[in-house]
Amino acid sequence: MSLLFEVAKTSEGGGRRAELVLPHGVVQTPVFMPVGTAATVKAVPQNVLEEINAEIILANTYHLYLRPGHELIRRMGGVHRFMSWERPMLTDSGGFQVFSLAKLRKITADGVEFRSHLDGSKHFFSPEHSMAVQIALGADVMMVFDECVETPASWERTRDSMALTHAWAERSKQYWVEHREEVPWTAQVSEARPGAPDLVERFEGKHQALFGIVQGGMYADLRRESAQRLVEMDLPGYAIGGLAVGEPREVTREMIALTLEHLPKDKPRYVMGVGYPDEIEEYARMGVDMMDCVLPTRAGRHGLVFVREDPKDRRSAVVRLNVKKLENAEDQRPLDEGCGCMVCQRHTRGYLRHLVSSGEQLGATLNSIHNLAFYLETMERVRGDLAAGGLASSFS
Questions:
Q1: Is 6 helix (H, G, I), strand (E, B) or coil?
Q2: What residues are labeled active site?
Q3: I want to staple 275 with a disulfide (CB 3.0 to 4.6 A). Which of 2, 40, 279, 285 is the partner?
Q4: What residues have CB less than 8 Å from 345, skipping those under 6 apart?
Q5: Whether 78 and 225 share a structural domain
Q6: Is residue 52 assigned to a domain?
Q7: Which tens digit of pLDDT belongs to each residue from 112-131?
Q8: Positive/negative CA dihedral, 293, 297, 299, 304
């Protein structure tokens, strides 16, 4: 057993209140996962992530493979020990980053040959190599190696790409089954399991969980086929990939809703790389259990923060506030008067504008902390709503 997933309540709209037990802890879902590309959530220290209650974070396989190298991280005891993070983690497969190197890569049935964006050196990722790198990193959840098709793309191009993703998923699973015991934290796993003891007692947690990734572009028939093919592989969890790559939001929602219909109700469901705070709330209420996005920290580094239109009503509309605007120069209010994060409890808009305008790194840190806290607060509220209003799940 690589994970334990138990749904307590399901709403009429499909949203689920559940607990996901992983080797390094229990995650309350639906959950938003901050992105820590290079074993760091940009500008935010690990102790602060713990304080704002980030239960699970991401790391990036492609970037850690290039620098400092997965074998170095293995020798350091895995990515948890390397970055001093004791809570659960997830690594992506590197597929999306390789997809982004359109002019620096060559795709074949065997895998992808690409040149590093750092120094131009040549590398090759196959499904087996992606699995080997992720096992060396040792995150609780790892992803199959996939190909993400560009948008827009023809039906034929998307079908061929999807077929490659399915073949690579089979190869990823085979390698994972044969090598998963090589994870670097096997000896330490029993020492770090905070959370629900009744679930933990039934959890073996001897190795990482492998999630499949549904592709199929913006074509309903291909999304349906991809989901069905991956479910046949009987993986511990499933992700919906290839979205939020330029398509209209209503198309994103349509593809998520369609795909959810064909994914198991008793396994975690993860939408990769989305989105704005109102989007993650919408998708969570549809039945998505896990989401991630670089937006909270990326926007924060550029002086863009998220606040509520009515600070006293945490269900009011989300407003995007540009801290750099001159109108904030002498504003003594916090970013969001209804927010309980450490930034809003201490600092004024005027001070934060000064930091950003002066190019001070503290500005990026404080804005990023607030944005992450805003996302996490949103998910906490959604979990509360689902727990209060949902129906008991028949398969829990």
A1: strand
A2: 92, 292
A3: 279
A4: 334
A5: yes
A6: yes
A7: 998 898 999 999 999 999 99
A8: positive
